[in-house]
Amino acid sequence: MNRVRRFHPATLFSALVFALWGAVMLLGGIRLFGSGGSVYYLAAGAITLLVAALLLFRVRLAVPIYALLLIATAAWAVWEVRWDWWQLLPRLDVWFVLGLWLLLPWPRRGLGHDRFGETARGTGGGFLFLSLLIVAAVGIVGALHTDHDQPGELPMADVSGPQGDRAARPDSDWTDYGGSPYGQRYSPLKQITPDNVGQLQVAWKIQTGDVPGPDDPAETTAENTPLKIGDTVYLCTPHSKVIAVNAATGEKRWEFDPKIQSPVGFKHWEHMTCRGVSYHDDAKYAAAVIPAPATTAAGVPAVASTAPLPPSAIATASCPRRLFLPTADARLIALDADTGQPCTDFGQQGTVNLRTNVGPFTPGGYYSTSPPAVTKDLVIIGGHVTDNESTNEPSGVIRAFDVHDGHLVWNWDPGNPDATAPIGPDGIYTRNSPNVWSLFSVDEGLGIVYLPMGNQTPDQFGGGRTPTSEKYSAGLVALDVATGKVKWNYQFTHHDLWDMDVGGQPTLIDLQTADGVKPAVIASTKQGSVYVLDRRDGTPIVPIQEVPRPQGAVAGDHTAPTQPLSDLNFAPPQVRERDMWGTTPLDQLWCRVRFRSLRYDGMFTPPSLQGSLVFPGNFGVFDWGGVSVDPTRQLMLINPSYMAFQSKLIPKEELAKMEVGPAKSETEGVKKAEGIPYGIELSAFLSPLGIPCQAPPWGYVAGVDLRSGKMMWRHKNGTIVDSAPLPIPMPLGVPSLGGMVTTAGGVTFLSGTLDYYVRGYDVRTGRKLWESRLPAGGQATPMTYADSSGRQYLLVVAGGHGSLGTKQGDWVIAYALPK
Fold first, then answer.
1. Are the C-beta atoms of 529 and 593 separated by less than 8 Å?
2. Residue 304: predicted pLDDT
3. pLDDT tens-digit profile of 284-298?
4. Does pTM surpass 0.85?
């Protein structure tokens, strides 16, 4: 009597799993190959379907055929990415797991046999085991060989004298957002060293009480770098509150709430940010002599500011020590640094209305997210303008107000650059001119303020931009402090169509060169170039080349034939299909298909109707965190990030058929962009799992010897523990938003990574020496100071960042060595 041939359930289940997996691979592979991509996925999907069919019909060849597929997949993976373990992983992981399953006896029971439950013999298990060993060996070799780091050492000998901006500033204080008007993010404190930084512990921590609420915008950020003056730390919160605390204990001394207002509430704002406040001390200027730079250029004299402040000005000021607070509803408020009360002699009872003369704007569409620059006589401020909303936005005007009474001294409007005399009461500054949303730097010895320029909105279409707006966009502009007149400008992105505004505060340093000491300004940019110019006249110190870039803008627009590239640059190489990443072959395949669907001709690929890949993206290689320098050792510490974005121009007739809701942020969502023929869609280039589509690392820390212009070390930085679907602390190197702070003690600190840590690194080698878990995202630049006893502190704001998706909160944490 013939026995009935029956399936073992595990064999049937295996056939179904392999069929499903193979079908997905085949369909995606057909689409990828049809768009000019790799044939591997098509072939692998077809072979997997064959294996599924053989399993279904109980044919023993199923196992050896899958073993051959494993070996071929390993060979293909090594051919594509060599021994990069992180890129080998998504190419091999699921295939390896399926092989392990097939190696178990249950899926192979009954293959070629007629009795249910009989152990399979001669089904190719030995060959499959060998193929799995080969795949495992490839992974092990990859893990041993993968190293995206560049080890090395920076010279640690002091080679430069003190910088002029530290005059009358105690080493123990942090008086400006960047540590000083030079924006160096450097402290001469030496108590914390590579030998003892591992002992840092929490000295005090507070919560401000300002946490994002249900009616706040999605992009509510805590990007604040506090100030420390005397025995007090001053900080601001996203809702523009100012809090003063004891520097040694964190005990609150006073709080000021400007009670920001909006006619429609905050829900429809795109973001709410306060990066900090500014400080002015009359007594400091009463006796100070501001030094000239070390050398002068031919025909460009260096002039020192030697005139002390008149005693009458000090005597009549209601608060000789004052803070300047830019609020999210476009006010500039002067506060008594000792009491937190408004300085009533400034503006109208302590307030200057920044909405004056800028014309109408949507709520939240104009205000200063960054603290103003403060000089002996002036407080100088710019403003954020909402990107891609329309062509009728507020002016990007820069205004200088008298530091004591708040009257307007001069205004520089990039759309009308020669008219710097104060505008009349009924005048309106040029609508939609380029703005400066980031931080200025000041050299009072030269009498120059340095502006990191944005561009004329909208960002991705420039068909209607004016010649003056084009001239002053996306570069560095130097203005005379006294008059607001342009002294020089240098553009870093021509006809910017990628939101490559200069986000970082310019950093000033007296630089040792082969031709002697030169007063330099360092400008970090989103495209990865670090431009080093003579800050007297804007001539390059590090050579800059004009490099041909992709052409072919949409109808009504054009592209610049070349773009400037500094010899000191950290621009990534051009990505290829094989650089697409994922956690599995499936999402990697999705990223490959998506990559092939976008227009991409390398950096500066123009926006298009089909969609364009923007790499580096508009978070940049460097954003508002800028760079940190050690001026005495002539070193630069940086945290470059590499995240691709995608943009698409949508014809207005097509946009009219779409349901367009509020954009998540300035870099996420669809914008109507009134006034141009297109809507604009922006998003990060991510897989369906929310993982970047381009392969890691995505973030580094690096050290540069400024005298030679060479990067001496680089290390990937951070883990995906707080951003991956599973909280596994894989050290892939993640993006960071925020800057570094460097100390004379030889330690540099960073808290801005997408995982919730603050870390300390050896300046000499870049080796991570210490880290501390934060209760929320630390997307701010840390600072350091000393109290009256000489104890040095590291201060970190951990409040998260709404549009980055990091955990939000209201923490301020001070670390110090044990007493």
1. no
2. 36
3. 877 554 554 444 333
4. yes
